[in-house]
Structures are given as C-alpha cells and as structure tokens.
C-alpha cells in the first residue's frame, strides 16, 4: 500500500521554519501592549487615573473603556462582557487598562504608574453559593424523557449522590496573542490566535464602530488551542485592534505564561447531584440529574457547554426514564470557556461514577453493568434523536479480547493479594459522542480553490490549523477529488477575505465542515475539467467520449477503458485557461438534518455519533500516593479514516490530555480569586514520563452509514473521554486497600494527595 | 549595551545586547532566528532549547552576554546542510501536531543521540522529561526516536 503523505507542515515543523503568529518580520513602528490586570475578583472602581502613565516618555497611548469608539461590549451570544470594565470589576486578572509603547520595558513601567482605587465587593467562587443566589446566565434548561419521579419510586434500588469535577488550564504552548495592523481607509488586518475568525471580526466591528468589511482576519496556524482560543481569544484580539485603530500603528498583544494562566478562563468545574434507580442486574431504570457549571464572570460559551454536558449526561447508556437539568452559574473567576470535549467529559464523568456505584452496591463487575445498559441500534436518546447505528457492543468485545480482560482481572486480584503497599486497579469507560455544533446555524462552511496555470492548487477554508491537521486532511480530500498529488496542493491561512463568515473550528467538526466545503469546490472544478478532457481525448480517438468515460487520477485525466489515452493535469489546466474555463471555485456545505428545540428539549442535534471504549490498568504506591499508568487499550471507531496517523495522534493526544485533567492538573485560587499555579513548575501537565508502559490503540474502520466527509468520522474530542478510565482505575486501586466494606472516596483530580487521603479514609472505615 | 561575538549556526555573528537580555530574546528579536520558542520564560517547558557548545540549554535562562565566544546551534543550524535521520523520522512518524514544541524536542533528542547512539526507553524519557508537549501525548515523538536508535548500526 502506498504510504499516505505526512503532515502537510511536517517538514516546516521539524526544521523550525513554520511561522506562528508574530513571527513574520516586525512591521515598522510596532507598539507593544501591556495591561493593568485587576488584582481582585470583585470590586467597584472608584478611580482609574492613567495620567501619570501617559506622562512617561515613549508612551504612545494608555487606553481604557473611555477610548472605545463603538460599544464597549465583546459578549457574543449573551452580551454581558465589556472590553474594559467601566464600574464593576468581575474577576482577578481582568484587563482594566492597556499601555502602548514601542518599548516593552517602558510599557511595563507605565502600567505601574496607573492609579487604581477600588472598593471590594463580596466575590462568589463557589458553585452552590452562585446557584443559591440564582446567578444564572439564563434560566434552568431541561431535557426529559418518560416519568423519572414515578420510575424512581418503583425502582428496586435507588442511590443518590454528588459528583464534582474540577477545572483545567488549556496550556496551549503558544499563549494568547494578536498582531493588529492598520491599513488605508480605516481598515485593520489582524493576525490573531483565534479559532473563530468570524466572531473576532463581528465583535471587533461593534467595538470599533466600523463595518465588518474593514476588518480582515488572517490565521495561518496556532500553537495549540484546545478550545481556549475559540472564544477566549476575542478579548485579546479586540484589545490589539483597539490599540491599532486608535494609534494608527501596528500593535502586538502577547500574554506571557503567567498572565495567560491568571487571566484566561479554564475548563468548567461541575457539581452534579443525581438520583438513580436500577434493578438487580444493574439496569438503570431512572436517572434524575442536575448539572451545575461554574461559568466564571461572564457567560462566554458556558450555556452551550452546559447544553453539551446535558446531551452527554447518559453517555453510552439507554435510560428509559430520565430527567436532565442544567444551570450555568456566574461566579467571580475568569470566564470559563470551551475546552476539548465542551462539557461532555463533565457530564459523562457523573454517569460513569454512578455506574461504578451501582456495580459496587450489587457486587457486580462494573464492565457487566456497563454492558447491561449500553445503547442498541433503534434506541432513542433522551432528546429524541434515534440511535440509527451503534456498534458499542462489538467495540466492548474487542476491548475485552485485546486486553485479555478475564485473565487481567485475575492477575490484578492476585497482584493485590500479594502486595501490601502496591495496589493495581482497572478502569473502563466507553464513549458515545455527538458530532455537530448543537447551535445548528454554526454547521456551515465554505472553501475557495484556485488552480493556477501550472497545475498547482491553492485551497482556503474557514478551518483553523491548530495541530489537529485539518489542513492535511483538506489537502488529501482535494487531491483525491482532482486526482492529483498531495504535494501540488497548498492549504492557505484561514483568511476572512478569501472565506468569510467562517464558523469556529471547534466541536470536532473542522474536517467535516471545511473538508466537505473543499470537496464541493473541488468537485465543481473536476466537472469542468472532465468535460474538457472528454473533448480533448475524443479528438485522439475516433470515438465520442462521454464525461463518465474520464477518470482523474495520477495527475492525469485518462480514459477509463484505455488509461494510455490521457492528458496530463498541467496540460489540461493550460488548455482550460486558454479555452476560458473558470479555474476557481467556491464550495459551500451545510450539515444536513441538524436541529434542536431548546424550549421543548427535543430534536436531532447531531449528524452522527462517534463510539469507542478504553481500558487502563494503574498501579498506586499506598505509602506515597504516587500512581503509574501501566497498560492502556483503546478501541475507537473512526470509520474509514482520512489519515490513520493523524487520527491515531488525536486519540493518544486527547487521552493523555484527559489523564492530566483527571489525575494531576489542578489550579486553585486564593481568597481574591487569583489563580495560584501560574507556570508549568506548579501546574503539572503530563510529561513524557507519564506515558503508559504499553499503549494499544485499535481504530475500527468499518464503513458507517452515519458518517461525514468521504465516509470518515470526526476525531478531535471523543477520545478525551478515555482519560476518565484512569480515574476509575485509581479508584479501584484505592478500593483494593480496604476490606471492601465501603466504596473508596477519591477526589477529582486524583492527585497523589487525593489518593493518600482516600487511602487513609478507607483504612479508618475498614477498621 | 555590550557587543558580543559568537558562532551562530556555523556563522560568526556580532550583536549588541543589554546585560539583562536573554539569549532567547536576542536570537528571536535581534538575530532573526525564530525556531526557539517561548513557552514559559522560566525554564520549565523546554520550548526554547538551543545548544551551546554541543550541550542543550534553555535559552530563556541564559543571558545573551554569556555566550560571547561560544558556539550556539539552533534547530535552523541542525537542519543544514540536510535533515538528520532524526528529523526525517519525526516527519515519517507524524510526531508533531501544532509543532510549537518541536524545536525544543528536537534539540533535546539530538543531544541524546549525539551522546548515546542507542538510548533505551528509560534514557529517552529522561532526556525528554524537560520538554512539554500539549498536543501529542508524546507517543509519536517517542516512537520516532526509538526508530532512529534501532536503525543505527550497532
Ligand atoms: S521558554 Fe524556556 S523553558 Fe520554557
Ligand atoms: S505538537 Fe503541539 S505542543 Fe507539541
């Protein structure tokens, strides 16, 4: 088999020549932005005087809300977030003023000269307090099926409890940044670290009071994003744009790591209360769940994220009587935001914990309880979408067989029997992940393709390349449609002048939407070219060829029945140009069949689902609380993958990132709401040492009826769920310490301290 | 301001630096060498790694003035005149996603392979333990280095 081409930017990356934002030659007269960030979480501003800072030599400008020419508002769906606060400070780290200078050190000095006086107000950090005080961005949301209260009453067994999960810092390696360059006639070009060119353009046009067509967004690539630049980049882009617009000089906004970790929102912490009813076999008959999200100071994407948490509250399990309620609460932390999984990991964690609880109560193998409850084809999700095809059961059998599950269980039990201080545990988690933006209107995208006179091709889509290799996939799709080699295709920066109104590259839909748009554009070009080729090649034979006789392949247009009869792609293009055939095309794609009625809580929010399951084995040292990931088995459905290596990379990357969330990443704050872990020395993300000893990833590539571009399935977020298996494995390892009388109470994330604490508790109870 | 002179990627260069300027900033802002990246600016992420006299260091922790008279090699220098076996392997294994960590990772791995032609699992993990990557989960990086180690003649 011919090996697929590598990462489209692979060569650039390994030679250090790929350019990130702000790495082009510096524009003449570039000004550096420095910020006065709020030292407290909640306060009324009494005085904000910038005059002393302005007096300093070489300070070009010091800007506050007073300098905003348009509306001081960057909220998108819910308009509750000012660019700069006017009276009320809402979180620690909130930018209050921006200093601009050609000399960054002078700008730093000037920030210290800004006089700020404020009166502190009571800050809210706790979800329960915010909920009690009804600090909701919008009223409670509900998805309901059947009669949960009745079902709970008639259930053979019931349980209830509270489940919490914590925040997570994105830690994209490239921090938030933007270059804003003013042009003629009040135009602005922004090189912004954003996943969402349309949003930045739209919001900025309101902030500056100028039409959208005066603002150009251009994004070549991001040094990681993971959702942290879907919405959270808008603030910094608008600040850069404001600076450039007012001073008419180029401006660089670039956060250092400390500022980035302090001032930007994280993954939402969730607190959830549940009641569950089940029978003797562990079949869940009723599930009443309330999901509370800590949204931070402004709505940001909290409501959409809550919605996805609710859509995934039952994960891979069919529950006949179910009621899912959700409330996203305003607190005085930086606005929490999108992060790979977008609420689904938080919702799924609760039901998986419930499953474990049920298994414990009934003394059943948690794997059996999972199997008992799995969705089957023909079931209907709580929000009314039918499960048209699912292979969850066969994925589980595959997982059992590649991990040699029965043998593994015995060997872990044996190990635990023989070891006093070391204990092992097995954790399993399946996933059913819905693909599409749940805000239906976002499920659209465009692409622009040019074939140049020498037969090389330029493709632009709205897709933002941020490491997920959407550009490689797009190039593969175009290459396949036009029958030309990958190397002749360039995928350009995402630019609002070439592709406008681009939806965020998010929700795992980047390749589906943008890849399909590119496919549509390429198909138009192919149609024109095939027609021309049929004419040309007819002349070389005495038969009148039809379009359907022509095949575009191997950089040629050829006659299917006589492949020797062919015209090379460059010759065909030259002839097409000479014959005045258009060599550019615009493709548009809207995902069919997605809709959701928020009032009723019913609809068909997803184009399809992605399924999979993971099993991990861990070992803990009960004296230190340290843990080790031993083996990992993942069976993940990709459908026919566009590129095996890319998808495998996403699966492993997501798993490890999630393991970080579940076991080591914890960012506490002080009583002023200031985050305390502000560098990688105090905020631990997985390192190479945290890799499992053995990692088996099996991609199931069987064709599916429900899939997307060229039969493939989205891959960015679903595998994030697998990291939760590590948490459950750790809980089982802790459980093995005691006599089994009580279920181990392990906190989230399962840090060494949390593991030690859980061990102590279980020891006391076992006595 | 002080004038310093050092070999940068096989070329003698001079540059004026402030005593408190880091090598990372001078390379990026004054000498047009962009491969070393800033991920933390305090020695914790490895994105800024370069070689000084063949040893990898974090350029955010070194004052530029300290490299006077020494030899500095960045990823740009390693890539000349042609890609190393290691770089080829990183391409073939699709080792990087966003690529931001790549320059630092490649410096660390190059140093490892220079000193130890056949590193084992543990030695690779040790050598790369100071390089953070948020995208890949390290597996494809690790596999590429293992592959180079295996294919080298014993
Ligand atoms: S930037 Fe130097 S180690 Fe992180
Ligand atoms: S590839 Fe993105 S940080 Fe390593």
Plain-language structure description:
- The complex is a heterodimer of chains A (767) and B (154).
- Chain A has 767 residues and is of the alpha+beta class.
- Helix content of chain A is 30%, strand content 25%.
- Chain A is built from 19 helices and 29 strands.
- In chain A, the strands form 7 sheets. In chain A, strands 3-5-1-12-9-10-11-20 form an 8-stranded mixed sheet.
- In chain A, helix 9 links the parallel strand 14 and strand 15.
- Chain A is globular and about 90 Å long.
- The model of chain A has no long low-confidence stretch (mean pLDDT 96).
- Chain B starts with a strand and ends with a helix.
- In chain B, helix 3 (85-92) crosses helix 6 (139-151).
- In chain B, 36% of the residues lie in helices and 16% in strands.
- Chain B is built from 6 helices and 5 strands, in the order E-E-H-E-E-E-H-H-H-H-H.
- By secondary structure, chain B is of the alpha+beta class.
- Chain B has helices spanning 23-30, 75-78, 85-92, 102-115, 121-128, 139-151; strands at residues 2-8, 11-17, 49-52, 55-58, 71-73.
- The complex binds FE2/S2 (inorganic) cluster (2 copies).
- Strand content range of chain B: 15-25%
Shape of chain A: globular
At CATH level 2, the architecture of the largest domain in chain A is 2-Layer Sandwich
Question: Fraction of residues of chain A in helices?
Answer: 25-40%
Q: What's the number of extended β-strand segments of chain B?
A: 5
> If you consult CATH, what is the topology of the largest domain in chain B?
Ubiquitin-like (UB roll)
Q: In which range does the helix fraction of chain B lie?
A: 25-40%
Fraction of residues in β-strands of chain A: 15-25%
What is the CATH homologous superfamily assignment of the largest domain in chain A? Aldehyde oxidase/xanthine dehydrogenase, molybdopterin binding domain
């Amino acid at each position: 088999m011919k090996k697929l081409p590598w990462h489209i930017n692979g060569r650039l990356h390994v030679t250090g020549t790929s350019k990130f934002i702000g790495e082009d030659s510096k524009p003449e007269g570039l000004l550096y932005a420095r910020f006065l960030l709020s030292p407290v979480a909640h306060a009324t501003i009494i005085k904000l005087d910038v005059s002393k800072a302005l007096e300093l030599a070489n300070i070009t400008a010091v800007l506050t809300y007073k300098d905003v020419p348009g509306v001081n508002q960057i909220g998108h769906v819910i308009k509750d977030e000012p660019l700069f606060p006017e009276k009320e400070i809402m979180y620690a780290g909130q930018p209050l003023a921006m200093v601009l200078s050609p000399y960054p050190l002078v700008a730093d000095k000037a920030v210290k000269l800004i006089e700020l006086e404020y009166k502190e107000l009571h800050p809210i950090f706790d979800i329960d307090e915010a909920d009690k005080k009804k600090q909701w961005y919008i009223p409670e949301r509900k998805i309901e099926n059947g009669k949960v209260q009745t079902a709970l009453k008639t259930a053979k067994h019931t349980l209830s409890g509270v489940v919490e999960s914590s925040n997570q810092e994105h830690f994209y390696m490239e921090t938030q940044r933007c270059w804003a360059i003013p042009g003629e006639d009040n135009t602005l070009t922004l090189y912004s670290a954003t996943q969402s060119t349309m949003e930045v353009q739209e919001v900025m046009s309101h902030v500056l009071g100028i039409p959208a067509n005066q603002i150009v967004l251009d994004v070549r690539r991001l040094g990681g994003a993971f959702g942290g630049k879907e919405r959270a980049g808008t603030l910094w882009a608008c600040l850069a744009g404001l600076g450039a617009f007012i001073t008419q000089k180029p401006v660089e906004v670039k956060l250092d790591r400390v500022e980035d970790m302090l001032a930007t929102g994280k993954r939402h912490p969730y607190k959830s209360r549940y009641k569950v009813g089940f029978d003797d076999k562990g079949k869940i008959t009723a599930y009443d769940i309330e999901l509370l999200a800590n949204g931070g100071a402004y709505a940001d994407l909290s409501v959409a994220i809550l919605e996805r948490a609710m859509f995934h509250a039952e994960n891979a399990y069919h529950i006949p009587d179910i009621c899912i309620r959700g409330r996203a609460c305003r607190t005085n932390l930086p606005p929490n935001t999108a992060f790979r999984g977008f609420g689904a990991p938080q919702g799924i964690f609760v039901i998986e914990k419930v499953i474990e609880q049920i298994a414990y109560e009934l003394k059943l193998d948690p794997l059996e309880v999972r199997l008992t409850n799995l969705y089957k084809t023909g079931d209907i999700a709580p929000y009314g979408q039918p499960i048209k095809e699912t292979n969850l059961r066969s994925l589980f059998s595959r997982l059992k067989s590649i991990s040699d599950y029965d043998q593994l269980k015995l060997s872990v039990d044996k190990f635990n029997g023989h070891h006093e201080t070391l204990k092992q545990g097995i954790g399993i988690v399946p996933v059913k992940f819905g693909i599409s933006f749940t805000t239906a209107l976002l499920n659209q995208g465009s692409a622009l393709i040019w074939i140049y006179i020498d037969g090389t091709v330029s493709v632009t889509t709205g897709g933002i390349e941020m490491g997920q290799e959407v550009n490689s996939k797009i190039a593969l799709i175009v290459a396949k449609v036009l029958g030309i080699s990958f190397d002749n295709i360039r995928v350009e920066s995402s630019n609002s002048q070439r592709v406008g109104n681009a939806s965020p590259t998010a929700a795992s839909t980047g390749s589906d939407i943008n890849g399909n748009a590119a496919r549509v554009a390429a198909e138009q070009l192919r149609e024109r070219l095939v027609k021309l080729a049929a004419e040309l090649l007819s002349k070389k034979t005495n038969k009148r060829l039809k379009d359907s006789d022509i095949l575009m392949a191997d950089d040629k247009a050829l006659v299917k029945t006589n492949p020797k009869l062919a015209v090379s792609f460059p010759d065909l293009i030259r002839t097409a140009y000479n014959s005045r055939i258009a060599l550019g095309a615009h493709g548009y794609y809207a995902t069919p069949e997605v809709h959701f009625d928020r009032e009723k809580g019913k609809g068909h929010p997803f184009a399809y689902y992605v399924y999979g399951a993971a099993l991990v084995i861990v070992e803990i040292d009960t004296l230190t609380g340290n843990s080790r990931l031993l083996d990992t088995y993942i069976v993940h459905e990709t459908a026919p993958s566009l590129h095996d290596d890319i998808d495998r990379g996403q699966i492993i990357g997501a798993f490890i990132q999630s393991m970080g969330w579940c076991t080591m990443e914890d960012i506490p704050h002080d009583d002023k709401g200031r985050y305390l872990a502000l560098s990688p020395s105090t905020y631990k993300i997985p390192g190479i040492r945290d890799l499992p000893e053995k990692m088996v990833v099996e991609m199931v590539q069987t064709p599916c009826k429900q899939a997307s571009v060229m039969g493939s399935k989205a891959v960015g977020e679903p595998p994030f769920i697998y990291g939760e298996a590590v948490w459950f494995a750790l809980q089982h390892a802790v459980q093995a310490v005691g006599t089994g009388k009580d279920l181990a109470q392990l906190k989230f994330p399962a840090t060494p301290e949390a593991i030690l604490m859980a061990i102590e508790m279980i020891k006391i109870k076992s006595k | 301001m002080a004038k310093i002179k050092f070999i940068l990627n096989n070329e003698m260069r001079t540059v004026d630096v402030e005593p408190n300027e880091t090598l990372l900033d001078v390379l990026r802002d004054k000498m047009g060498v962009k491969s070393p990246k800033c991920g933390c600016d305090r020695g914790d992420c490895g994105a800024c790694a370069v070689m000084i006299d063949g040893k990898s260091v974090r350029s955010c922790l070194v004052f530029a003035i300290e490299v006077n008279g020494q030899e500095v090699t960045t990823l740009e220098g390693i890539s000349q005149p042609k890609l190393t076996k290691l770089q080829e392997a990183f391409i073939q294994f699709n080792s990087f996603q966003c690529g931001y960590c790549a320059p630092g990772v490649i410096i660390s791995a190059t140093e490892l392979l220079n000193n130890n032609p056949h590193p084992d699992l543990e030695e690779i993990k040790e050598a790369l333990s100071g390089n953070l990557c948020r995208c890949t989960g390290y597996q494809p990086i690790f596999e590429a280095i293992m592959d180079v180690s295996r294919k080298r003649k014993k």
